[in-house]
Amino acid sequence: MAIDSITVNGNQYDWGSIQVLIDGLPLIGVAGIKYADKRERSFAYGTGKSRAPRGRTRGKYSAEASITLWKDSADDFRQYLASRDPSFSGSFGNTEFLLNVQYFENDLSLVDVQILRCCVVGDDSSEEENADPLKEEFALSTFQIIRNGVTLFDNSDGGVAGVIGAVAGGVAAALGGF
């Protein structure tokens, strides 16, 4: 038995397969998206001639993401987040949101990536004379990344289950109870 499956007609996920949602709402003007997580695990050494590790720690988990938007969508994104600022200061960097990336392709299973508790920590814009449309990249601080319901970090204490439930409730409310 193989780990992966044979694709029908050779279809693979591509840029046209991606749908990006912010708090359950579609974001159309996406020019790029990046996300990564890591789990830094250290070895525990003991005495002996082999100097081989005795074991390793559970590690320390971290995640990061960024999203690149076309210039007009970047302004709409900022305005959306600023309108939801919990301190009512008009800051688009105070608002936490759920970033959901979904990959759809005929004959392939849905890939659903939830990037939880995002907030903007950087806004990078660089314009120069050329024929390309203008865009901006937003650096995001995020707590966790969940890919098709599984995590890189040890979730044996059930810490994510409550978060996923809360996020799902928020998304359902944002979509009008669907």
How does this model look, in words?
This protein is of the alpha+beta class and 178 residues long. The protein has one domain (16-38, 57-171): Pnp Oxidase, Chain A (Roll). The protein is built from 2 helices and 10 strands. It has helices spanning 71-83, 159-174; strands spanning 18-22, 25-26, 30-40, 43-45, 53-56, 60-70, 97-103, 111-125, 135-141, 144-147. Strands 1, 2, 3, 6, 7, 8, 9 and 10 form an 8-stranded antiparallel sheet that branches. Strands 4-5 form a two-stranded antiparallel sheet. A hairpin with a 7-residue loop joins β7 (97-103) and β8 (111-125). It is globular.
Structural class by secondary-structure content: alpha+beta
Per the CATH scheme, the topology name is Pnp Oxidase, Chain A
The main pleated sheet reads as: 8 strands, antiparallel
Residue stretches low in confidence (pLDDT < 50, at least 5 long) are: 172-178
What proportion of the residues form beta strands (DSSP E)? 35-45%
Query: CATH top level?
Result: Mainly Beta
What portion of residues is helical? 10-25%
Average predicted confidence as pLDDT? 87
The Cα radius of gyration reads: 20 Å
DSSP strand tally: 10
End-to-end separation in angstroms reads 38 Å
**Please, what is the oligomeric state?**
single chain
